[in-house]
Q: What sequence folds into this?
């Protein structure tokens, strides 16, 4: 009878204990990763895309859009210091 009481741990109970200890850490890691991926998803736009959205929504005029677009393109090509 004594053997049946502790026999479960000898037959794989250590796997259950390992899972119980690792599961919270794995869940924490996955939740942090998902949170930061969602947070980063909104910041993938380039400056030119943001400028185009501002122009399309009417926040800036055509002349300002063209001036800023030319400035951004000059910076990306290395013409400006």
A:
């Amino acid at each position: 009878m004594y053997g049946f009481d502790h026999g479960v741990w000898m037959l794989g109970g250590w796997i259950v204990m390992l899972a119980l200890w690792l599961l919270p850490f794995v869940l924490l890691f996955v939740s942090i990763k998902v949170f930061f991926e969602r947070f980063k998803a909104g910041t993938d736009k380039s400056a030119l895309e943001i400028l185009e959205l501002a122009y399309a929504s009417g926040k800036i005029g055509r002349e300002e859009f063209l001036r800023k677009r030319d400035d951004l393109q000059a910076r990306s090509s290395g013409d400006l210091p």
